Amino acid sequence: MKAIDGGICAVKGVKAWGIKSGKMGLGVIVAEGNAAGMFTRNKVIAAPLVVTREHLQKHGKLNALIVNSGNANAFTGEQGLEDAREMAHMLSDALSIHSEHVAVASTGVIGRKLDTKWISSNLQGVIASLKADHEGSHAAARSIMTTDTTMKEIAIELDSGVRIGAIAKGAGMIEPNMGTMLCFAYTDAQVPSDLLHECLTRAVDKSFNMVVVDGDTSTNDMVILTATGNSGVQPATAEFQQGLDHVLIELGKMIAADGEGATRLIEAKVTGALSDEDARLAAKAIVRSPLVKSAVFGKDPNWGRVTAAVGYSGAEVDQHKLSLAFSDGKNTIQLVCKGKILGANDAALSLLGKIMGESKVDIIVDLGLGQCSATAWGCDLTYDYVRINAEYTT
């Protein structure tokens, strides 16, 4: 596979555009084909997710997607459901398509009534500007940003010629638990809806479900995958899965690196676990730990916080077999080897502090019990995280 330019519009059959006005944003993506989705497991689920899930369950395909930022349309009761359905009807009427072939997404403040008049008054302008090039993808990616500081988009071409592109948003309230992050992915492969869902489930488990910024699961987490089929190619499932995994993992890293107030990306890799679930539990515990995240921010070589997080993660752990190392990609320091402490001297702690000051910090744990592994991504916890969230609505 190779990286290509164009984001979602690198995929044949995709047009997109969006606008951003202050905290309000509106985006539209037009792409017809089989589709699959995954949604938050938060029991307080936003209205647009309810509507989109209904549409996908009925038809397994989509023709278009409408998304707004600035208002989550969550915890808004029956009025919220009516507003989400109104968004679908607005777009279906404008494009002359069935409203149940429209996906609806929202992100922003919870518990506030959606301003459907603002959406209605801006929709025609967005539709008139739809483009099938990099500008269209950029505009759509920009429209869904809230506290994000960077746009998140990617596109690749597989050896078979099939393309996969995606955009995402997310910086805070991030611990996707799917079965406030949004991801809209597209491919021009010919793939049936049931296989799309299987591939999407596997890819999300390896990517977004292994990302933690602050440990909060949003009411609005949504990932949608649509296959236009316009390449005319039905790729091998293994090749398609590998490509989709890559796309979503890279977006997951972008989300972690852009965590609210973040200055460093943390990658935690756990090996030697008795099961895949144990490896996942241990890896996520590391990147979720406020103490680990704070230590990385302060470049404080307090590596014992990592072993503590692994110990309470729920994974099977034998402290006499555990090994721990830190790396910045250039320098690596082994701190613990099969339960024996190696990194207690001043020189080791000084090197660890330097490693923790780099833009990407790798934490490597070997549980020494089995053959299973997992990787999770997170970020440091900074003063700005508190400031951003203390001032979110004001």
Question: How would the blueprint of this fold be written?
Answer:
Blueprint: E1 2-3, E2 15-21, E3 24-39, H1 47-59, E4 61-71, H2 77-95, E5 102-109, H3 116-128, H4 134-143, E6 152-157, E7 163-169, E8 182-187, H5 193-206, E9 222-227, H6 237-257, E10 265-273, H7 276-288, H8 290-298, H9 304-312, E11 323-327, E12 332-337, E13 340-341, H10 346-355, E14 360-366, E15 372-379, H11 383-390
Parallel strand pairs: 4-5, 8-9, 10-14
Antiparallel strand pairs: 1-6, 2-3, 3-4, 3-9, 6-7, 7-8, 10-15, 11-12, 11-14, 12-13
Rounded average pLDDT: 94
Low-confidence stretches: none
Order of helix and strand elements from N to C terminus:
EEEHEHEHHEEEHEHEHHHEEEHEEH
Question: How much helical structure, as a percent, in the residues?
Answer: 25-40%
Radius of gyration: 21 Å
Q: What is the CATH class designation of the largest domain?
A: Alpha Beta
Query: What's the total helix number?
Result: 11
- Say what the CATH topology of the largest domain is: L-amino peptidase D-ALA esterase/amidase
Number of domains: 2
> What name goes with the CATH superfamily of the largest domain?
L-amino peptidase D-ALA esterase/amidase
What is the distance, rounded to the nearest whole angstrom, between the alpha carbons of the first and last residues?
45 Å
Number of strands: 15
